[in-house]
Amino acid sequence: MSRIKPNIIITGTPGVGKTSLCEVLVDAIGFQHLSINRVARERDCHDGWDEATKSWIVDEDKLLDAIEDEVQQGGQLIDWHACDVFPERWIDLVIVLRSNSAVLYDRLKARNYAESKLQENMDAEIMEVLLHEARDAFDTEMVIELWSNTPDDMDNNASRIETWLEQWKQQHASPAVPNA
Length: 180
Fold this sequence. Notes:
- This protein is an alpha/beta fold.
- About 45% of the residues lie in helices and about 20% in strands.
- The protein has helices at about 20-30, 35-40, 60-75, 100-110, 115-125, 130-135, 150-170; strands at about 10, 30-35, 45-50, 55-60, 75-80, 95-100, 145.
């Protein structure tokens, strides 16, 4: 099945601005925001709540089954802290958002993260865990690292993605059929 719109993963450590960027892009490009945390909760794609991490334990098989039809149609902004669960054939672009340590720490602290969860996420960002995960799971040409420290960064990131989308549309446009 050929899609007329691409699918884009917006990934990164919690607190880097994935959801905020997706919300900007929904308005700018008209894609659907597929928040995996919400999907897992609302479509019962989890094995319960992990009290230690204060998060759902996502059943990846159920998740993929639950979103497959939407993703195959295209036009999805997939918002999650992980990306390697998604089949490469579903995805056209992977955006890995990054933030500097001071900005990320302040954002996570404002969310009242427990110290252990805050430190785990800080370590993941410093060690570039999600960037490496994306580069291991997808063709490197599909993976773009963008910084998300300021509102200007978010605007610039949205503009870059809009530009990428226009190029994708040109590359995937159906050839004109000559008049018979």
